[in-house]
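Provenance and format

Records in this collection were gathered into a single text stream. Each protein contributes a sequence line and a token line. The two records reproduced below are adjacent in the stream.
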Amino acid sequence: MHNYRNPLLVFILLVLPFLSKAQSHAFSISGSVADTFNNAQLPHASVTLLRAEDSVLATFTRTNEQGQFSLHPSKGGKFILMISFPGFADYIDIVKLNEKNSVDMGIVPMVSKTHLLQEIVVKQQIAAIKVKGDTTEYMADSFKVKENATVEDLLKKLPGIQVDKNGQVTAQGEQVAKILVDGEEFFSDDPAVVTKGLQANAVERVQVFDKKSDQAEFTGIDDGQKTKTINLQLKEDKKKGYFGKLNAGGGTDQYYENQGMLNAFKGKRQISAFGIISNTDKVGLGWQDRQKYGADNNTITGVNEDGGIYTSFTSDDDFTSWDGNYGGQGLPKVWTGGIHFADKWGKDDAYHTTGNYRYAKQNLEVEGNTTTEYTIPESRYFTNEHSNKFSSGQRHEADGMFEWKIDTTSSLKVTVNGGYRETQTSTDYQTQAISNDADTSYNSHRTLTSNANSKNFDATMLYRKKFAKKGRTLSINFNENYRENASDGFLNSFTHYYATGRDSAIDQHKVNNSANLVFKGKATYTEPISKVTFLELNYSVGVNNSNATKSSYDKQPSGDYTDSLNPMYSSDYMYNILQNSGGASFRFVYKKVNFAFGGDMSNTAYKQKNLSTDTLYHRSYEYSYNNFFPRINFNYKPNKQSSVNLNYYGSSKQPTIDQIQPLRDNTDPLNVPIGNPGLTQQFNHTVAARYNFYKVMNGEYLWSNASYTYINNAISRADNVNPDGTRSYQYINVQGNYNGYLYLGYNVKVKAVRIGARINTNVNRSKTFVNGVENISNNNGYGIDFDFNYDIENKLSIYFTPGVGYSDNKSTISTYTTSYWYTGNDLTVTYQLPKKIELGTYISWYMRQRTPGFEENTSVVRWNAYISKKLLKKDQLEIRASVFDILNQNMGINRYAQNNYVTQTNFNTIRRYGLFSVIWNFSHTPMSAPQNNDSNK
């Protein structure tokens, strides 16, 4: 049973001593451990016995004062005996207990690490899996994969590691956030670049560990912040040449998919490059850091949990999903590529630099229909919108890092990145509103065009200094972030309202410009109070200045837009923030417990001003807040296989400049937002808990995570629905909002089958106002899914993931509810035929329950299949024929519920096509020695 079931564990611990005394020692291994070079016994040496078949611990002991040991496994068999002693090389030997009940090892010679090169021979065998402290290390060649397999294929073979259908990696129950190569980050921590691009035969070791925060690694004080990380340690011969992959594919209906990856290594110097040209759903190797392009027009400014100002950027641009597959709407054409460089040099690698450059261009055609059900007091109405959109955009981004270890006590690290993007977009909308009694409220036709560009530049500088007293440190950090956006376009709209017979026409020239500058400096000092107690002090000052100019010019009878500014839909607004913050925290670190509490006090001053005297609004707002941001963190690690974490912290969120800017935005004249200069900050109270348990050898893990956030002064909305069906809304502050989630996952391997189950629940309560009536919406979701993975090495692989969920949506202003069931089932099968032929298929079935207003059939069955053949020496060449969406049922559809409305969008997407591909894996290692591919397998 699992060791986290405490009553059973206590019972076993109480009974075990009596049972061990009551039974005879049927099997035994004994001996003595000695330093034969110095003729000395080694007391308290660690003696471990592992089952050879799966490296599971059989028993453990330490030598006595005379260096003697005795082990008593419960049954016979083949075992791995491991003996360790500080300063000496590990002794590893194979011991068999079959017919003989006992084995006397005699004197076991241990060799000092300083004498390893002398004429003393030690029996050793490389173990497939080693656990070194908090690091689990897998010897890659001990896990057989097919020729030219990728790192992703290798990871799927390792116990305790899972890779889902999207390429997301989970290790020991936690999502892997970083995948390093020889300790280096590739393309801003993008896991897909590494797992899908690197070859498995280049990897010597796969190391899984919890990476401490940079601050914890520097100070030596564990702050409890850790990131699940995988490091791929390359073979020495792979560091002296190059290797990579080319994939060229063309198919029916003018589909194509071409990509390449090159990796070149020379010692500690690394150069990697990739490129993709495609109009399928393969549009990238993954772009997790889209905000670095400065491409987003929506700026969110706030104060994070440590009291510091932050700025984030949201985007409605569906360029790529994190795993490099197109996750948006429509038909894309993409040209993208990048190059990565890293090197270390100097004594003790005193100098370290990395650099990346990336380019991406996309053309996108989207056609869709959106149906939205709005609930208003004791009634409801629907809008149906048909849209056609074409956009073309390109991005450039470069970033670099330089780190200098000045001496053993101090270092300097500088990072910079910058980007530029330009897009051209043209969208045509046709919208109809239908009231609850099926009468048409209005018909509208609207066209939007825009030419936009954006720039960004970010820089950080971090200086760190350690003092003579252990744990006494000083860190000084400066951050700068700059964003600039500009757009120029036209709005042309015509709407007919049936109730009044009124027609409304808009023809305007739209010119928008915005800029945002954030600068922050912070100093952090740590002081040890005792060996287990530490004090941290910090002080920071930050500025966040934003300016947004939005100008709307009406078309004149002459056809000119010049000097015809419309003040109702124009604004020139300034939003500046100045913050001073200081805080302290105490941390207690002792063996299995890590506990910290503290907080920051901050004064944040705001200044808002409309700079344009030509508009309807010309006021200034100046106000300030004194905030306290408490933090409590508790970590308990009862053993290396499990951990418990509890957190509480307070944080604030500031209004965006778009929410407060006193402007009526008529970009969509049927849904008009109105800025609220009186909008104030919200404050979040968040409580989170996590429990994790895992066993490496059989891939068993239990992972649970829960969070609850209560919001004071929440930023919400007040909607006003007019009798003609048009709507305006404004952001306001309310009380009583909260949200939370619960996730529970379990995985275990039973013989040849991996079985997993996951339960997830999310709850959201939000208060809004609709036509002056308070509306409390509860939008909750519940889901459960399973996965079954059956694998016969190099023969058959079956991966099946069924799941079901329920979306529960209720609103107090109406008796109407829109709740529905949905289910998703995925099946992946690969089968190896003779003569290196492989068959594979993927079937995905997704269904949503029909509801009033959404009564069409939304069941989708996607079926893909391929056949491939390996050629050349070591299977370096592969030819593959694939068919996607065989049943031609792929349907683009999204449905979501929020507050008092439910929206469903149907859109065009990639449908049935065939693709013929040629894949070439290549490598060149001129200085490498011949490898024995059969070793350690």
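Adjacent record:
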Amino acid sequence: MANFSLSLLSLLLLLPLSAYSELQPYVVYLGEHSGEKTVQEIHDTHHSFLLSVKETEEVAQASLIYSYKKSINGLAALLTPEEAAKLSEMEGVVSVFPSQAKKWYVQTTRSWDFLGIKDRRDGESNYERGGLMHEAKYGQDVIVGLLDSGIWPESTSFSDEGMGPIPKSWKGICQAGDAFNSSHCNRKLIGARYYLKGYEAYYDAPLNTSTDYRSPRDKDGHGSHTSSIVGGRVVEGVSALGGFAQGTASGGAPLARLAMYKVCWPVPGRDPSEGNICMDTDMLAAIDDAIGDGVDVLSISIGTFSPVNYTDDGIAIGALHAVKRNIVVACSAGNNGPGPGTLSNIAPWIITVGASSIDRVFPSPVVLGNSLTVQGQSVAPYMLDDKMYPLVYAGDAVVPGVNNSVADQCLPGSLSPEKVKGKIVLCLRRLGTRVGKGLEVRRAGGAAIFLGNSRLNGNELPIDSYFLPGTAVAFEDATNILSYINSTKNPTAKVVPGMTVINVKPAPSMASFSSRGPNVIEPNILKPDITAPGINILASWSEKSSPTKLLSDHRRVKYNFDSGTSMSCPHVAGIAALLKAIHPSWSSAAIRSAIMTTARTRNNMGMPLTDATGDTANPFSYGSGHLDPTNVADPGLVYDASYTDYLLFLCGSSGLKGLDSSFKCPKKSPSASNLNYPSLSISKLNGTMTVKRTVTNVGDGESVYLVTIRPPAGVSVKIAPRVLNFSRVGEKKSFTITVKAKKDSQVDWRGTEEKFAFGSYTWTDGIHHVRSPMAVSLA
């Protein structure tokens, strides 16, 4: 902290007054370290770049925030836009971009059971025969790094009881700080670091230590939650506040080792419930350290507010360096859905994860005064007396002067105590936080809250631990309640206390908040890649954070519900850890391929996956499908890709320049659609296009695969050859896919937005089914 303050102060004293307001943190990305220079030589090189745009050596030194010295070659510094532009033109500089403020996506006693992983005993003497976890030895000695808000080390989920020595491959540290020292790491939580320089430079102020710990300790809850989803130990008798969802909590790889890289911090002046912020500068430093520390998998539940070019995206740059070293990187797709083109983390070397539901609900019906019963869900730990209460619509109970367009939103200070006291209040979702609406009803003296979905939220019901009795209802049910209120002078209602129900059908369905494709940076790569459980997930929590994260909420819990693609991402990272344990020689691309091609596109009733409104979903919401660990360790065939393949992809991708300054693009770069990806996307097809794919046999030595095709509407698809004969494991076979627009197509491709149609092709030997989705639009 002292070093940052003195450095910034020195810089400000050395600069003219006109430069103060122009300074902001930038990343200067230089590509890959050659391995020939010492750490001091690297630092001197970075300093020389700054010296070329700064007036004095003192100013150059004071402006440096980070010097990335391990795998990532680059620096972070306080620059003016003019200085950044000058640096971007220099030889050896790949890209220069302002450090973006990114955030995580917030919105497990059941999710792993729902995915079909029931063998969760993590003691050596309790191993059961068969099952993915048993085969992977529960992820033993695989190291998973997480970029997040820190970790609560005392949680039982992070106990190291019965675990063996730390793997010799581990080179990381346990960084001490506020309320955190080296003893907080153990044989489970083997490493912890924190990164603040970029955050403090962005806000030009030190961290307010009353809002967070200046250490790897988690004050928010998010980092502990994601960590326990990936690799939390088996913990019996876990439940949320009020006793909901009681059962056994476990991560996907309960014997995997965890390393926390704390890069996310509170937004100054905002309530913690609004989420934290994470800076590119800090994340690049964290990924650089994680690579050097020896992690096998990275789980990053962080994303952008809007899609970003790969060359201007710290996560994409860092992930490419990680993948070069065969580290699997899983990232959240984002919580900006259901609109099209809202995805984050769309680089093809990243596993991009959407969010969907599980088969557990918490029914809490609403009984109206006209005897109509409306279904709802709730985990509110408080109950009303079993009697009818007056019912009021929030739009009819606001204080004078509230804007009519937000009158029904129950925003802070909007409700009139005279109109609300002792009544149940119907509030609607759109603006503000869900728990904040309950807080407003309580402030105004309301007895309970009915929280109604907007049309976009449909039937999806994230649940909250309100400060008062209440339940959440779907859009149509909220409409029915409002119709009843408007039909009588004295509307009344009561709410039945919530309970836990599992094995619900149909499930899963896509979360309305989950960001959708197409990939607006490179529409010839289909994203997201996969969807996984991300609604109402119960996992470990910080004991310094309340269930709602509101400052006014003084309740404390050890386990808590949370929803978002932040929760779905570590589910995929957990499966990746198990695959790393079973197939240590597989590349990160092979692991991604196995996860994608074994996914399922139907729910537990055998029907196509739907979205929150009940409409049929498509690959722009779920990618290849819903995560299905059943066959993931034995996918039959995999689509592999190397670091060089990704650089060639960048050469041919929408004019993007490469991310490795030492790599020279060929004169004729391949189309982005030609990347050996487990899915296929062709944007603005004009006539006919042929792409190539190569599969590697990882199943039976001698096998014969035949292809079946379900072409997208409006195009014909031919695959040659249609039969692949393999004689050994590890053998590769290539095939071509020719896609042709039909002249007599009845598909309506008109409109201002690009219209895609979807299909698939599947290779099968009678045992393995290797499915790849297709998305095609016409020019």
